[in-house]
Amino acid sequence: MTTESRTSESVSAHAAPTAAGGAVLTARQEARRDRILQATTRLASGGGFDAVQMREVAECAGVALGTLYRYFPSKIHLLVAVMHDQLEQLHETLRKRPPTDEDAAARVAQTLMRAFRAMQREPHLADAMVRALTFADRSVSAEVDTVSRLTTAIVLDAMGLTGPPTPAQLSAVRVIEHTWHSALITWLSGRASIAQVRIDLETVCRLIDPAAGPAPTADAR
To answer: What is the pLDDT of residue 11?
Structure first.
């Protein structure tokens, strides 16, 4: 991947909001879209995935139900868009306060744990967003791809590369993203503790720089 393609990827991850048909929104339409996402976030934070119903979202956002469907064809589309919105906020925070560890693997692990702790503060919202990503079918592929590209951009920023990533590094980033998603699922289902999630993330991040050595074990903590 060239530097130019990395820049293109970063731009696409933060592209201007669009309606369901793909048209770029006006300022007024973007404000309406923001209200919809804020309403969805409130409902999901209070009651999780099942609390997000299209009619409830429309009422909370102050829009007609038909208008809501023009922006988001389903609750899966809605929650994936919320996930993207949450990641954008995280990305902006990380740019202002980047990770401080010396090696790239540790910086990525620190970044992902910061993201995880943000999810931990809103477990119902985290569960709703992760379920949406899990249930998403081909009709939501474009939105899911945008979330994936943004996650990749966050990881690449944490790595602090001085040049374009190598194919091996990009492959490692994909494995790290898969592990992070899996860790969210296992934690939300009560099958993994926060400590275990941290160890798993630190372990997989060593793929970025194998010379960094093994991650700390549970006993070492």
So the answer is: 34
